[in-house]
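User: Sequence recovery, please. Input:
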């Protein structure tokens, strides 16, 4: 009989920045005015997460620009090397 394999959904845990921020809900539901305070706490947590995500997006954009610049430099060097080789081959012919 063929052995069975248990497939994991994910082998590595998600990075801390990718995990959602969780606000712990109180055990007893507050009545009246204190529920407004809970909503404010949740709003503050969501705003904080939004700000962190914006910073992360800006970081990724900067990294992407850097990678694109590096790729352009590599492409130019390869083109230069090919031109040099072509000139050497034409000179021998």
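Assistant: Recovered sequence (93 residues):
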């Amino acid at each position: 009989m063929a052995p069975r394999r248990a497939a994991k959904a994910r082998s590595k845990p998600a990075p801390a920045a990718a995990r959602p921020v969780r606000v712990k809900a109180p055990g007893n539901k507050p009545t009246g005015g204190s529920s407004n305070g809970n909503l404010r706490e949740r709003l503050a947590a969501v705003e904080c997460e939004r700000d962190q995500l914006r910073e992360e997006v800006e970081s990724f954009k900067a990294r992407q620009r850097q990678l694109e610049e590096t790729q352009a430099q590599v492409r130019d060097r390869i083109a230069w090397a090919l031109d040099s080789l072509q000139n050497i081959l034409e000179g021998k012919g």
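Residues 61 and 67 are 10 Å apart (CA to CA).
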